[in-house]
Amino acid sequence: MSIRRKAAAVLAGAVLACGLLTAGAASAAAPTGRTAQSAYATYTVAPIVDAPIRSGPGNGYPAIGTLRHGYSYPARCWLSGETVVDHGSTSHIWIYVSGGAGIGNGWVSTLYLRGDERADLPASAQC
């Protein structure tokens, strides 16, 4: 095999590996069971109080920002996570939301959102 062919084969392998690594990183950032952001419908949620956005669906995950009362935010899906208890109310449903520039995407408990137990997201919007 010539040096040019070897170099071309190595380059092709590197390009393929980079593509696979990029695809893997994108799927790891998406909620469970989804690999492409385009697979989501977008819904809107509104907090009833300022609500923490967390890096995962539970209070044990770090807060990465805050959804502000009086504003609406895009949401993608919901899932059952850690149960949250606050002021005598409980919820185990978490919504994957976009907090906007400077905050990014994360999870918020439906305990702090307007609507039904899934913040008015349909049952079909499960992550």
Overview of this protein structure:
This protein is an alpha+beta fold. It has 2 domains: 1-30; 37-125, SH3 type barrels, CATH 2.30.30. 21% of the residues lie in helices and 32% in strands. It contains 1 helix and 6 strands; from the N terminus they run H-E-E-E-E-E-E. A 4-stranded antiparallel beta sheet has the order 1-4-5-6, with no helix packed on it. Strands 2-3 form a two-stranded antiparallel ribbon. It starts with a helix and ends in an 18-residue tail after the last strand. Mean pLDDT is 77; it is low at 1-30 and 33-38.
Quick structural summary:
With 127 residues, this protein is an alpha+beta fold. The protein has one helix at residues 3-29; strands at 43-45, 51-54, 63-67, 73-86, 89-98, 105-109.
